[in-house]
Amino acid sequence: MAQLDLREKLEILADAAKYDASCASSGTAKRKSAGGKGIGSTEGMGICHAYAPDGRCISLLKILLTNSCIFDCHYCINRKSSNVRRARFTAQEVVKLTLDFYRRNYIEGLFLSSGIIRSSNYTMEQIVEVARSLREDHDFRGYIHLKTIPDADPELLRQAGLHADRLSINVELPTVAGLARLAPEKSAPRIEGAMRGLRQEIEDKSDAAKRYRSAPKFAPAGQSTQMIVGADAATDRDIVQRASGLYGRFNLRRVYYSAFSPIPDASAVLPLQRPPLMREHRLYQSDWLMRFYDYGPDEVADAADPATGMMPLDIDPKLSWALKHRHRFPVDVNRAPREMLLRVPGLGVKAVDKIILARRWRRLSLADVGRLTVSVAKLRPFLIADDWRPVTLSDRADLRPIVAPKKEQLELFAA
């Protein structure tokens, strides 16, 4: 490997990290450096691809330790057989970059992943050393998210959790068959075994913290995972069921979806075209329905096309489910329980909570509900209000074109 300076390494390894989608800071412990104690902070609404209430984009340093790898996963641009320019940081170079970027107010934390070099244990040792040095040598109090290696020794994963806010172990692909075909050197049982071990460690340390004030924190922001969408034959229905199982078995904070992107010198077993980005967006919406709208995985999967197993791209999964269950609507905004109001297309969690609060004091009209949502047009066929009843509208056979969002041609030079 040619000698590269720090700037050249950063250019290569920051670009290589763009395929990791799972970076967020929700749920972590609050730390700050007020009073001259340490450096950094986790205060605020989020880190990396998140926005504060005043519109600020809050970011972190998102890099790979190295893009060299001993594995040859077909879908990975950094695979062993890929013809890409390689680079590698030392642990202390990552520490220096993180502190320098923080002092310049460029970042508020670190997201660190890596290819596998020498062995899983050797690579994991380097990742842990970065986090340890930041915390213990420099008293860094900002956010740290580490992508961990499931094949590494459990003790190394435990050490990672003592220094990091969040840990991730990627399941890579939605199905075991897809993983065996596209990443034969990786094992689904080993991946899930490592995730199970992290869950147990997180729960044990959380229980200890309730009993003993001196108990060390372990990955206070929990663990997350990521799966690639569109590289194998998995349908959206398969992906939703898989995500639900991961949430239930491993108590994950998030499942992230990354649309497959064709890579240079791609393997012949990969698709030639990337899936529509809207498919990734629909999967995130489906994920939201399970996490915040009390939908069961079977209900979300029911929103998919019965023949193809794919979510419709022109309408969101919530509207698709409502159109398939017309017999459940319309619902009375002044009488319906919360779980049914959450199924009304166009009503979000905050709007439903405000409706439930407001109707304790007065009966709500359609205009009242309209003030709580962006558009009342989508609501009309599914809702009964004090001054509104859909009558024939809710029974129309051609309802979908009426409630589906209208396609618009964006203006290139719009003000």
TrEMBL record:
The keyword Iron-sulfur applies. One of its GO terms (molecular function) is metal ion binding. Keywords: Iron, Iron-sulfur, Metal-binding, S-adenosyl-L-methionine. Residues 59-286 form the Elp3/MiaA/NifB-like radical SAM core domain. It comes from Sphingomonas turrisvirgatae. It holds the Pfam family Radical_SAM. InterPro entries: Aldolase_TIM, DNA_rSAM_put, Elp3/MiaA/NifB-like_rSAM, Endo/Exo/Phosphatase_dom_1, rSAM, rSAM_sf, RuvA_2-like. PANTHER family: ENDONUCLEASE/EXONUCLEASE/PHOSPHATASE FAMILY DOMAIN-CONTAINING PROTEIN 1, TYPE II SECRETION SYSTEM PROTEIN K. It comes from the Bacteria. The keyword Repeat does not apply. SUPFAM superfamilies: Radical SAM enzymes (SSF102114), RuvA domain 2-like (SSF47781). Coiled coil: none annotated. This is Putative DNA modification/repair radical SAM protein. NCBIfam families: rSAM_link_UDG (TIGR03916). Its cofactor is [4Fe-4S] cluster.
